[in-house]
Each structure stands twice: as C-alpha cells, then as structure tokens.
Amino acid sequence: MNGPARFTRKVQLLFRCFLLISVTLCLFLLSACSSMKPQEAVDSTKANESPENVARVFAESLATGDVDLQFLCYPAEFVGGLSSEDSSVYMDYSEQIAVTMSEEGTTLEGSRASEPEPYTLDKDSTEYASLQTAISAKFGVDEDLVSDAKLCAVRLFFNDDQTMDVTVLVYQLGDTWYAYKLQANDDADS
After folding, report:
1. ∠43-66-190 over CA atoms, to 5°?
2. pLDDT score of 116
3. What pLDDT is recorded for position 12?
4. Residue 96 domain-assigned (yes or no)
5. Which residue segment(s) compose the domain that 104 sits in?
6. Of 137, 188, 118, which is closest to residue 158 (Cα–Cα)?
C-alpha cells in the first residue's frame, strides 16, 4: 500500500505545484494588463504633490492643449509674470491642439506614470548644476532652491487603443514638484 499512497501524494504535490504556478502566472498577467491601462486621474489640487503627478498632468495638458492644467505645472510666479504676448502663444497652441484632436476624432483617455528615476545621482555634478541654471533661467526661480530633479516615464492613452510614451523632466522647489520639459520617446505607438 505504500506504493499507491506515495504515488497519490506525488500526484497531489505535482497538482499543487501546477496550481501555484498557474495562479502566480494569472496574477502576473493581470498585473501586467492593469499596468497597460490609465491610472485614476490626478486631482488638480494634487498635481504638484509628487513627481509622477506633475509629470502626468503636464503630459496630459500638452496632449490636449489644456493651458489651465499646463500652468499648474509651473511656478505661480512664472505664470503670473507672463506677458500678454507670451500668454497668447500658449492659447494659440491650445486652440491648435483642440482643433486637430477634434478633426481627427482623437480623445485622451488618461495616463500612467512609471516610478521616477533620478536625473542624476550626483547632485554635485556639473550636469545637475547646469540643470539648476537652466531651470532658473526659464522659470525665474533661484537655482539653489531646486532641490531635486527626476525623469518620469508617462504613457498617454488615446481612443482606438493608441498610446504615446513620453518622458517628463520634473524638479522640486521646497515640497512642490514642477515640470521642466517633455520629450517624446522613439518607441511611441501613435
């Protein structure tokens, strides 16, 4: 009787291993599928709370031409100091994007951000100092107040299962995160 009982235990053990592997694979596939969908929208009051939030809001604002969202991603002093000529450039861009999206029947369905990566690990490097200087020149902030910078990969989701991958360079002033610039990735699906 030891033979058949031992055989039954081996079959049960193999079945349990198969079941464990199957469940693990299903969970992996489900998590992979969920990462291919937009995250919940960022509330505008939380746009500047994290690198991921400001990166998503900035990417979405540029994709849709939403100037109000875009301005949330810049320091208030910069936005308040824009001349009427500067403001009209932003408004013209907004109108052009809205018309183009309407004509093409394109709608933004949301976005998803990956874990941010440090812009550089060495904050004493000339690379980091150059970034601080560039941010200061563009936004009129004291370069010494730029305390951190990160690169955030953002996937934009559009109707008809189209996506676009971008990288947003964000920076921190105090406890607040702002967008510096966006770069389209080469491997985007459009």
Report:
1. 100
2. 97
3. 56
4. yes
5. 45-184
6. 188
* Residue in 155, 157, 149, 150 with CA at minimum distance from that of residue 185: 155
Residue 190 has pLDDT above 60, yes or no: no
Tens of pLDDT, residues 80-131:
999 999 999 999 999 999 999 999 999 999 999 999 999 999 999 999 999 9
State pTM to two decimals.
Answer: 0.79
Q: Please check whether residue 166 is in contact with residue 156, taking contact to mean a CB–CB distance below 8 angstroms.
A: yes
Which is more confidently placed, 108 or 188?
108
Give me the number of domains the chain comprises.
Answer: 1
Indicate whether 141 belongs to any domain: yes
Domain assignment present for 85: yes
For the domain that residue 92 is a member of, what is the CATH number?
3.10.450.50
Torsion of CA 184, 68, 101, 139, to 10 degrees: -30
Q: What is the pLDDT of residues 11-49, one digit of tens each?
A: 554 445 444 444 444 334 433 444 589 999 999 999 999
55 found inside a domain: yes
